[in-house]
Design goal:
170 residues; 0% strand; single chain
Amino acid sequence: MKLLSDWGITSDWWRGLRGEYWVIAQGVLLFCFAILPNEQPSFINIDSPVWNYSSLGLTVVFGVGAMILLGRSLFDLGQNLTPLPHPRDEGQLVQTGIYSVVRHPLYSGVIFLAFTYASWQISWVHFLGAIALFIFFDAKARKEEVWLTDKFPAYSTYCTSVKKLIPWIY
């Protein structure tokens, strides 16, 4: 229970005041992604070396990107880590390390992992699932940024210089 309270989860979590419902929805969405069927597009010859090498290349690029984003964000965030989109009461604004490249690298890492799996399986269903995760994390980040702007006045300036989910792009 101490870990939950350290993360900012309170006994009235059911009210959703710190974004608890976002975390629940995220868990449901990730579970649904995991149980999606692998469906390759019918127009693709899976045995073709072109598709195999293209799939492998995309898998490596997305996978390495995901590992860098997730690993560095966990390291850089340190004691500020919480599963909730609401910042910890005693938290600090982190703008260095991977956070100088993208504002929400944990979300980005999960999105990249989803695209990694979709490209590895050459699954159009998982590709659509990865897009759904992108849309979800974009909305969750938007809500989180309202709280971050309220808590940290410097956050607005930070948003103008660092992209939200895709490093240097979006």
